[in-house]
Design a protein that fits this description.
Radius of gyration: 39 Å
Largest sheet: 5 strands, mixed
Number of strands: 5
CATH class of the largest domain: Alpha Beta
CATH topology of the largest domain: Double Stranded RNA Binding Domain
Distance between the termini: 61 Å
Shape: elongated
Number of helices: 13
Oligomer: single chain
Helix content: 40-55%
Structural class: alpha/beta
Order of helices and strands: HHHHHHHHHEHEHEEEHH
Strand order of the largest sheet: 2-1-3-4-5
CATH superfamily of the largest domain: Putative neuraminyllactose-binding hemagglutinin homolog like domain
Strand content: 15-25%
Number of domains: 3
Length: 378
Amino acid sequence: MKNISRLRYFIYLSLIIIGGCTTGKKALQKGDYDTSVAKAVSRLQNSPKNSEAMEVLKTAYDLALQDHLQKIDEAKMSNDLFRWESVMYDYQKINQLADDINSCPACLNIVPKPSKYINELADSKYNAAGARYNSGLGYLRGNNRQAAKKAYYEFEKTLNLQSNYKDAKAKMEDAYWAAVTRVVVQPIIINSGMYKLSADYFQQQIDQFIGNYSRNKFVIFYGETQATDQKIVPDQVLSLNFDDFVVGQTYVKERVEKLKRDSVIIGETRDKKPVYGTVKATLSIFEKNISSSGLLDMSITDWKTKKLVHQQKFPGTYIWKDSWASYKGDDRAMSKQQLAITRRKEQLPPPPSALFLEFTKPIYTQLVDDISYYYNNY
Protein backbone atom coordinates (compact mmCIF):
# COMPACT_ATOMS: atom_id res chain seq x y z
CA MET A 1 0.00 0.00 0.00
CA LYS A 2 2.85 2.38 0.82
CA ASN A 3 4.43 1.81 -2.61
CA ILE A 4 1.10 2.55 -4.34
CA SER A 5 0.69 5.76 -2.33
CA ARG A 6 4.20 6.87 -3.22
CA LEU A 7 3.59 6.11 -6.91
CA ARG A 8 0.41 8.20 -6.89
CA TYR A 9 2.28 11.04 -5.19
CA PHE A 10 5.08 11.05 -7.80
CA ILE A 11 2.56 10.88 -10.67
CA TYR A 12 0.66 13.84 -9.17
CA LEU A 13 3.90 15.77 -8.64
CA SER A 14 5.01 15.05 -12.21
CA LEU A 15 1.72 16.36 -13.59
CA ILE A 16 2.15 19.59 -11.62
CA ILE A 17 5.71 19.99 -12.93
CA ILE A 18 4.69 19.27 -16.51
CA GLY A 19 1.76 21.70 -16.21
CA GLY A 20 4.07 24.34 -14.78
CA CYS A 21 6.53 23.93 -17.63
CA THR A 22 4.04 24.62 -20.40
CA THR A 23 5.34 26.74 -23.25
CA GLY A 24 2.10 28.75 -23.57
CA LYS A 25 1.18 27.17 -26.92
CA LYS A 26 -2.35 26.26 -25.83
CA ALA A 27 -3.00 29.77 -24.50
CA LEU A 28 -1.77 31.14 -27.85
CA GLN A 29 -4.17 28.91 -29.76
CA LYS A 30 -7.02 30.17 -27.59
CA GLY A 31 -6.13 33.80 -28.28
CA ASP A 32 -5.00 34.50 -24.71
CA TYR A 33 -1.83 36.28 -25.81
CA ASP A 34 -0.82 37.78 -22.46
CA THR A 35 -0.97 34.40 -20.72
CA SER A 36 0.88 32.82 -23.60
CA VAL A 37 3.73 35.35 -23.25
CA ALA A 38 3.89 34.85 -19.48
CA LYS A 39 4.10 31.06 -19.81
CA ALA A 40 6.68 31.20 -22.60
CA VAL A 41 8.82 33.57 -20.51
CA SER A 42 8.55 31.26 -17.50
CA ARG A 43 9.61 28.27 -19.59
CA LEU A 44 12.56 30.11 -21.12
CA GLN A 45 13.75 31.23 -17.70
CA ASN A 46 14.04 27.57 -16.73
CA SER A 47 14.98 26.21 -20.15
CA PRO A 48 16.65 28.99 -22.23
CA LYS A 49 17.03 26.84 -25.37
CA ASN A 50 13.47 25.54 -25.59
CA SER A 51 12.63 26.01 -29.26
CA GLU A 52 8.87 25.78 -28.89
CA ALA A 53 8.82 28.44 -26.16
CA MET A 54 10.98 30.69 -28.39
CA GLU A 55 8.55 30.38 -31.25
CA VAL A 56 5.54 30.93 -29.00
CA LEU A 57 7.08 34.01 -27.38
CA LYS A 58 7.83 35.76 -30.68
CA THR A 59 4.34 35.14 -32.08
CA ALA A 60 2.44 35.73 -28.83
CA TYR A 61 4.24 38.98 -28.00
CA ASP A 62 3.59 40.51 -31.45
CA LEU A 63 -0.09 39.56 -31.25
CA ALA A 64 -0.44 40.78 -27.65
CA LEU A 65 1.14 44.14 -28.51
CA GLN A 66 -1.10 44.59 -31.57
CA ASP A 67 -4.18 43.60 -29.57
CA HIS A 68 -3.54 46.12 -26.79
CA LEU A 69 -2.66 48.95 -29.18
CA GLN A 70 -5.86 48.31 -31.13
CA LYS A 71 -7.90 48.41 -27.92
CA ILE A 72 -6.20 51.66 -26.98
CA ASP A 73 -7.09 53.26 -30.32
CA GLU A 74 -10.69 52.08 -30.04
CA ALA A 75 -11.01 53.37 -26.48
CA LYS A 76 -9.63 56.79 -27.42
CA MET A 77 -12.22 57.12 -30.18
CA SER A 78 -15.16 56.08 -27.98
CA ASN A 79 -17.59 58.39 -26.21
CA ASP A 80 -17.17 56.60 -22.88
CA LEU A 81 -16.63 59.17 -20.13
CA PHE A 82 -14.12 56.89 -18.45
CA ARG A 83 -12.37 55.66 -21.59
CA TRP A 84 -8.97 56.74 -20.27
CA GLU A 85 -9.15 54.01 -17.63
CA SER A 86 -9.38 51.42 -20.42
CA VAL A 87 -6.45 53.09 -22.17
CA MET A 88 -4.47 53.08 -18.94
CA TYR A 89 -5.23 49.40 -18.34
CA ASP A 90 -3.92 48.37 -21.78
CA TYR A 91 -0.75 50.46 -21.41
CA GLN A 92 -0.18 48.77 -18.06
CA LYS A 93 -0.54 45.35 -19.67
CA ILE A 94 1.94 46.27 -22.45
CA ASN A 95 4.47 47.52 -19.89
CA GLN A 96 4.02 44.36 -17.82
CA LEU A 97 4.83 42.24 -20.89
CA ALA A 98 8.00 44.29 -21.36
CA ASP A 99 8.98 43.84 -17.71
CA ASP A 100 8.48 40.08 -17.95
CA ILE A 101 10.66 39.83 -21.06
CA ASN A 102 13.35 42.09 -19.61
CA SER A 103 13.60 39.77 -16.61
CA CYS A 104 14.50 36.84 -18.89
CA PRO A 105 17.90 37.02 -20.70
CA ALA A 106 16.94 34.26 -23.15
CA CYS A 107 13.74 36.14 -24.03
CA LEU A 108 15.68 39.25 -25.03
CA ASN A 109 17.27 37.23 -27.84
CA ILE A 110 13.75 36.73 -29.24
CA VAL A 111 12.34 40.19 -28.44
CA PRO A 112 15.39 42.48 -28.08
CA LYS A 113 13.52 45.71 -27.35
CA PRO A 114 10.02 45.11 -25.96
CA SER A 115 7.88 48.21 -26.25
CA LYS A 116 7.21 50.24 -23.13
CA TYR A 117 4.88 53.25 -22.88
CA ILE A 118 5.89 55.14 -19.73
CA ASN A 119 4.80 58.64 -20.72
CA GLU A 120 1.65 57.40 -22.43
CA LEU A 121 0.66 55.53 -19.25
CA ALA A 122 1.26 58.62 -17.12
CA ASP A 123 -0.85 60.76 -19.48
CA SER A 124 -3.69 58.25 -19.51
CA LYS A 125 -3.68 58.12 -15.69
CA TYR A 126 -3.86 61.90 -15.53
CA ASN A 127 -6.70 62.01 -18.04
CA ALA A 128 -8.53 59.22 -16.19
CA ALA A 129 -8.17 61.16 -12.94
CA GLY A 130 -9.57 64.25 -14.67
CA ALA A 131 -12.61 62.33 -15.88
CA ARG A 132 -13.36 61.06 -12.37
CA TYR A 133 -12.78 64.52 -10.90
CA ASN A 134 -15.25 66.13 -13.36
CA SER A 135 -17.75 63.37 -12.63
CA GLY A 136 -17.38 64.08 -8.92
CA LEU A 137 -18.00 67.81 -9.47
CA GLY A 138 -21.15 66.96 -11.39
CA TYR A 139 -22.50 64.80 -8.57
CA LEU A 140 -21.53 67.40 -5.97
CA ARG A 141 -23.69 69.96 -7.76
CA GLY A 142 -26.63 67.61 -7.25
CA ASN A 143 -26.89 69.06 -3.74
CA ASN A 144 -28.38 65.97 -2.13
CA ARG A 145 -27.02 63.24 0.09
CA GLN A 146 -27.04 60.37 -2.40
CA ALA A 147 -25.32 62.47 -5.07
CA ALA A 148 -22.75 63.59 -2.50
CA LYS A 149 -21.96 59.93 -1.72
CA LYS A 150 -21.32 59.26 -5.40
CA ALA A 151 -19.18 62.40 -5.58
CA TYR A 152 -17.12 61.16 -2.61
CA TYR A 153 -16.33 57.88 -4.35
CA GLU A 154 -15.48 59.66 -7.60
CA PHE A 155 -12.98 61.92 -5.83
CA GLU A 156 -11.60 58.87 -4.04
CA LYS A 157 -11.00 57.18 -7.41
CA THR A 158 -9.41 60.42 -8.65
CA LEU A 159 -6.87 60.32 -5.84
CA ASN A 160 -6.17 56.62 -6.42
CA LEU A 161 -5.29 57.48 -10.01
CA GLN A 162 -3.43 60.73 -9.25
CA SER A 163 -2.68 61.32 -5.58
CA ASN A 164 -2.22 65.10 -5.95
CA TYR A 165 -4.81 65.89 -8.59
CA LYS A 166 -5.91 69.54 -8.21
CA ASP A 167 -8.06 69.99 -5.09
CA ALA A 168 -9.58 66.46 -5.21
CA LYS A 169 -8.71 65.80 -1.55
CA ALA A 170 -10.57 68.91 -0.38
CA LYS A 171 -13.49 68.12 -2.68
CA MET A 172 -13.68 64.59 -1.29
CA GLU A 173 -13.86 66.05 2.22
CA ASP A 174 -16.65 68.41 1.14
CA ALA A 175 -18.53 65.52 -0.46
CA TYR A 176 -18.16 63.41 2.67
CA TRP A 177 -19.72 65.95 5.00
CA ALA A 178 -22.46 66.65 2.47
CA ALA A 179 -23.23 62.91 2.43
CA VAL A 180 -23.08 62.27 6.18
CA THR A 181 -26.22 61.71 8.22
CA ARG A 182 -25.81 62.97 11.78
CA VAL A 183 -27.95 61.03 14.22
CA VAL A 184 -28.41 62.25 17.79
CA VAL A 185 -29.43 59.49 20.19
CA GLN A 186 -31.56 60.70 23.08
CA PRO A 187 -31.04 58.92 26.42
CA ILE A 188 -33.69 56.71 27.99
CA ILE A 189 -35.43 58.38 30.90
CA ILE A 190 -36.47 56.15 33.83
CA ASN A 191 -38.32 57.98 36.59
CA SER A 192 -37.47 55.49 39.29
CA GLY A 193 -34.50 55.52 41.62
CA MET A 194 -34.83 51.76 42.13
CA TYR A 195 -33.92 51.04 38.51
CA LYS A 196 -31.62 53.97 37.82
CA LEU A 197 -28.33 52.04 38.00
CA SER A 198 -29.65 49.26 35.76
CA ALA A 199 -31.10 51.77 33.30
CA ASP A 200 -27.78 53.62 33.27
CA TYR A 201 -25.96 50.37 32.48
CA PHE A 202 -28.41 49.63 29.67
CA GLN A 203 -27.82 53.15 28.32
CA GLN A 204 -24.03 52.67 28.57
CA GLN A 205 -24.29 49.57 26.38
CA ILE A 206 -26.23 51.54 23.78
CA ASP A 207 -23.73 54.42 23.97
CA GLN A 208 -20.87 51.97 23.50
CA PHE A 209 -22.55 50.46 20.45
CA ILE A 210 -23.17 53.81 18.74
CA GLY A 211 -19.68 54.98 19.72
CA ASN A 212 -18.08 51.98 18.02
CA TYR A 213 -20.38 51.94 15.00
CA SER A 214 -18.33 52.01 11.80
CA ARG A 215 -20.19 49.86 9.27
CA ASN A 216 -21.40 52.86 7.25
CA LYS A 217 -18.91 55.74 7.12
CA PHE A 218 -21.70 58.10 6.07
CA VAL A 219 -23.61 57.74 9.36
CA ILE A 220 -22.33 59.32 12.57
CA PHE A 221 -24.06 58.84 15.92
CA TYR A 222 -23.84 61.39 18.71
CA GLY A 223 -24.97 61.18 22.29
CA GLU A 224 -27.19 64.09 23.33
CA THR A 225 -24.53 65.63 25.57
CA GLN A 226 -21.86 65.21 22.91
CA ALA A 227 -24.09 66.83 20.29
CA THR A 228 -24.79 69.78 22.59
CA ASP A 229 -21.11 70.28 23.41
CA GLN A 230 -20.10 70.13 19.74
CA LYS A 231 -23.09 72.21 18.62
CA ILE A 232 -24.17 69.50 16.20
CA VAL A 233 -27.27 70.16 14.13
CA PRO A 234 -28.71 66.67 13.63
CA ASP A 235 -30.24 65.25 10.50
CA GLN A 236 -32.16 62.70 12.54
CA VAL A 237 -33.03 62.11 16.18
CA LEU A 238 -33.24 58.58 17.54
CA SER A 239 -35.46 58.37 20.63
CA LEU A 240 -35.74 55.44 23.01
CA ASN A 241 -38.54 55.10 25.55
CA PHE A 242 -40.15 52.28 27.48
CA ASP A 243 -43.84 52.08 26.66
CA ASP A 244 -44.18 49.94 29.76
CA PHE A 245 -42.21 47.64 32.02
CA VAL A 246 -43.11 45.43 34.95
CA VAL A 247 -40.55 43.99 37.34
CA GLY A 248 -41.14 41.19 39.80
CA GLN A 249 -44.56 39.77 39.01
CA THR A 250 -44.61 36.70 41.22
CA TYR A 251 -46.51 33.49 40.60
CA VAL A 252 -46.36 30.56 43.06
CA LYS A 253 -47.94 27.24 42.17
CA GLU A 254 -48.34 24.28 44.52
CA ARG A 255 -48.70 20.74 43.26
CA VAL A 256 -49.67 17.96 45.70
CA GLU A 257 -48.85 14.35 44.95
CA LYS A 258 -50.04 11.31 46.93
CA LEU A 259 -47.28 8.72 46.94
CA LYS A 260 -47.11 5.13 48.03
CA ARG A 261 -44.71 2.27 47.59
CA ASP A 262 -45.41 -1.40 48.15
CA SER A 263 -43.11 -4.18 49.34
CA VAL A 264 -41.14 -1.93 51.65
CA ILE A 265 -39.64 -3.44 54.83
CA ILE A 266 -41.61 -1.91 57.68
CA GLY A 267 -40.48 -4.19 60.47
CA GLU A 268 -39.47 -7.72 61.37
CA THR A 269 -40.90 -10.79 63.11
CA ARG A 270 -39.66 -12.23 66.38
CA ASP A 271 -37.46 -14.60 64.47
CA LYS A 272 -35.91 -11.65 62.62
CA LYS A 273 -37.71 -12.12 59.31
CA PRO A 274 -38.58 -8.91 57.45
CA VAL A 275 -42.13 -7.69 57.35
CA TYR A 276 -43.18 -6.01 54.09
CA GLY A 277 -45.87 -3.42 53.74
CA THR A 278 -46.94 -0.23 52.00
CA VAL A 279 -45.56 3.19 52.88
CA LYS A 280 -47.27 6.49 52.03
CA ALA A 281 -46.36 10.14 51.81
CA THR A 282 -47.91 13.41 50.68
CA LEU A 283 -45.49 15.51 48.61
CA SER A 284 -46.13 19.25 48.13
CA ILE A 285 -44.07 20.78 45.30
CA PHE A 286 -43.86 24.57 45.05
CA GLU A 287 -42.84 26.38 41.87
CA LYS A 288 -42.17 30.11 41.92
CA ASN A 289 -41.85 32.20 38.73
CA ILE A 290 -40.92 35.87 38.94
CA SER A 291 -41.59 37.54 35.61
CA SER A 292 -40.10 40.85 34.47
CA SER A 293 -40.80 42.36 31.06
CA GLY A 294 -40.82 45.56 29.12
CA LEU A 295 -41.51 47.07 25.71
CA LEU A 296 -39.01 49.56 24.29
CA ASP A 297 -40.08 52.00 21.59
CA MET A 298 -37.47 53.24 19.11
CA SER A 299 -38.41 56.08 16.82
CA ILE A 300 -36.27 57.95 14.29
CA THR A 301 -37.42 61.44 13.35
CA ASP A 302 -36.21 63.75 10.61
CA TRP A 303 -34.93 66.86 12.36
CA LYS A 304 -36.00 69.35 9.67
CA THR A 305 -39.42 68.01 8.76
CA LYS A 306 -40.20 66.45 12.17
CA LYS A 307 -41.57 63.45 10.28
CA LEU A 308 -41.26 59.95 11.70
CA VAL A 309 -39.03 58.00 9.30
CA HIS A 310 -38.66 54.71 11.19
CA GLN A 311 -40.19 53.08 14.26
CA GLN A 312 -39.90 49.69 15.93
CA LYS A 313 -40.93 48.20 19.27
CA PHE A 314 -38.80 45.61 21.02
CA PRO A 315 -40.21 43.31 23.72
CA GLY A 316 -38.10 41.66 26.38
CA THR A 317 -38.96 39.15 29.09
CA TYR A 318 -37.00 37.43 31.83
CA ILE A 319 -38.43 34.76 34.13
CA TRP A 320 -36.60 33.78 37.30
CA LYS A 321 -37.58 30.31 38.51
CA ASP A 322 -37.29 28.45 41.79
CA SER A 323 -38.73 25.20 43.12
CA TRP A 324 -38.74 23.38 46.45
CA ALA A 325 -40.92 20.83 48.26
CA SER A 326 -42.10 19.53 51.60
CA TYR A 327 -43.69 16.24 52.56
CA LYS A 328 -45.66 14.43 55.23
CA GLY A 329 -45.46 10.75 55.81
CA ASP A 330 -42.78 8.16 55.12
CA ASP A 331 -39.89 9.42 52.98
CA ARG A 332 -39.37 5.90 51.64
CA ALA A 333 -42.43 6.40 49.46
CA MET A 334 -40.46 8.96 47.40
CA SER A 335 -37.91 8.55 44.61
CA LYS A 336 -34.36 9.91 44.96
CA GLN A 337 -35.27 12.94 42.84
CA GLN A 338 -38.37 13.67 44.91
CA LEU A 339 -36.43 13.33 48.12
CA ALA A 340 -33.70 15.65 46.82
CA ILE A 341 -36.14 18.48 46.05
CA THR A 342 -37.54 18.29 49.60
CA ARG A 343 -34.07 19.14 50.88
CA ARG A 344 -34.03 22.37 48.90
CA LYS A 345 -35.03 25.63 50.54
CA GLU A 346 -36.85 28.52 48.97
CA GLN A 347 -34.30 30.88 47.40
CA LEU A 348 -34.26 34.63 47.62
CA PRO A 349 -34.92 36.15 44.17
CA PRO A 350 -32.49 38.65 42.60
CA PRO A 351 -33.09 42.30 43.49
CA PRO A 352 -35.42 44.31 41.23
CA SER A 353 -32.49 46.16 39.62
CA ALA A 354 -30.99 42.84 38.49
CA LEU A 355 -34.34 41.64 37.14
CA PHE A 356 -34.67 44.90 35.20
CA LEU A 357 -31.24 44.38 33.65
CA GLU A 358 -32.07 40.80 32.64
CA PHE A 359 -35.21 41.65 30.67
CA THR A 360 -33.36 44.42 28.81
CA LYS A 361 -30.76 41.96 27.41
CA PRO A 362 -33.01 40.57 24.62
CA ILE A 363 -34.24 44.12 23.98
CA TYR A 364 -30.67 45.34 23.47
CA THR A 365 -29.94 42.56 20.96
CA GLN A 366 -33.03 43.40 18.90
CA LEU A 367 -32.33 47.13 19.14
CA VAL A 368 -28.75 47.06 17.83
CA ASP A 369 -29.71 44.59 15.09
CA ASP A 370 -32.46 46.92 13.87
CA ILE A 371 -30.26 50.03 14.04
CA SER A 372 -27.54 48.20 12.09
CA TYR A 373 -29.98 46.92 9.48
CA TYR A 374 -31.50 50.39 9.01
CA TYR A 375 -28.27 52.35 8.76
CA ASN A 376 -25.71 49.94 7.27
CA ASN A 377 -26.70 50.79 3.71
CA TYR A 378 -28.34 54.14 4.44
